[in-house]
Specification:
Mean pLDDT: 93
CATH superfamily: Ribokinase
Strand order of the largest sheet: 5-1-8-9-10-11-12-13
Order of helices and strands: EEHEHEHEHEEHEHEHEHHEEEHHH
Strand content: 15-25%
Helix content: 25-40%
Oligomer: single chain
Structural class: alpha/beta
Number of domains: 1
Number of helices: 12
Radius of gyration: 18 Å
Low-confidence stretches: none
Shape: globular
Number of strands: 13
């Protein structure tokens, strides 16, 4: 098998997060579902942005957030996602490259604009996300380079991007190239609304042996199997993939590999500020551990440490030295 250039290559939405503190009253007045994520069009994005309080712009996107964590942990990464030739596109490209991640996808024109996620954070640290996908949903299959895909040990796919037709075709092509090269495919389910729209596709990918590592949270795994019983949903899903990772918020996370189950408690966070990106950074810790050949229990511990750092501040990109935090946490275990 040819030598790899990257530990992880991700395909995902190239999004800039626009984060603002808010109140439950504002969430209600805008008829939003607290703690959820909804897709919005350009007009709604403009109206909601105008109504929001002061905001800060931080590059985001689920897959890109995971790569930012991986790069900070020392892994070699590349990203495939579509931006526009505009200010937010420049922000995204600068931020991801500054993190040490290779990103060479050329921007589209000015329209549609770069994707943005308007994130409203209430005092209890719950985030309500309103996503305008913009240019990100026009990632073309022609941008998927077979040799680039084959150069990564793990291909990481963001479920959110399965929704638009063009990126879905691009991701299918990437899966074929990865499998042909003998690489592993990791997939994150992203959100229950994505699962509701594409459950048959996701189950088919699992049945066909095309997913090696599946990431989900408690709600998503139950939604995937249409089973309210968590243990039953985990059992059904674990039978279809070599490695299943399921996060459970304050209750930690579990992994199932070869019918063997592992669990890790949630790490204590000094402050709970914003839960945006907790799952993304958990995945970063796990994938970093796997890339280093660590035991599954250590991988889960790394994920929990990274998630705890992210929820202690605004935004879904690490601010502390998570590599040092991980080394300290593993040495103390």
């Amino acid at each position: 098998m040819p030598q790899t250039r990257y530990d992880v290559l991700a395909i995902g939405n190239a999004i800039v997060d626009v984060i603002s503190e808010t109140t439950d009253d504002f969430i209600a007045s805008e008829a939003l579902t607290k703690g959820g994520m909804q897709l919005i069009d350009a007009a709604r994005a403009r109206a909601l942005y105008d109504a929001m309080g002061p905001a800060r712009e931080i590059s985001g996107g689920s897959g890109a957030n995971t790569l930012a964590g991986l790069a900070t942990l020392g892994q070699k990464c590349a990203f495939i996602g579509q931006i526009a030739d505009d200010q937010l596109g420049e922000v995204f490209a600068h931020d991801i490259r500054a993190t040490g991640i290779d990103f060479d996808v050329p921007p589209l024109g000015k329209e549609p604009p770069t994707a943005r996620c308007l994130i409203l954070v209430t005092l209890d640290a719950q985030r309500t996300m309103n996503t305008f996908l913009g240019a990100s949903q026009y990632l073309a299959a022609g941008l998927i380079d077979k040799d680039l895909i084959a150069s990564a040990a793990i291909l990481y796919l963001e479920g959110y991007l399965w929704d638009p037709e063009e990126p879905r075709a691009a991701m299918r092509a990437a899966i074929e190239h990865a499998k042909a090269a003998g690489r592993k495919v990791a997939f994150t389910l992203s959100d229950a609304f994505v699962i509701d729209r594409h459950r048959a596709d996701f189950l088919s990918l699992m049945d066909d042996g095309l997913i090696d590592i599946l990431f989900a949270n408690e709600v998503e795994i139950c939604s995937l199997q249409q089973d309210e019983d968590f243990e039953s949903a985990v059992t059904a899903s674990a039978a279809k993939v070599p490695l299943l990772i399921v996060t459970r918020g304050e209750h930690g996370a579990i992994a199932v590999q070869n019918e063997q189950r592992f669990a890790v408690p949630a790490e204590h966070a000094e402050r709970l500020i914003d839960t945006t990106g907790a799952g993304d950074l958990f995945a970063a810790g796990v994938l970093s551990g796997l890339s280093q050949g660590r035991p599954i229990a250590d991988c889960l511990k790394m994920g929990a440490i990274c998630a705890a750092e992210i929820i202690s501040h605004y935004g879904a990109r690490p601010e502390a030295d998570i590599k040092a935090l991980v080394e300290k946490g593993l040495s103390a275990a």
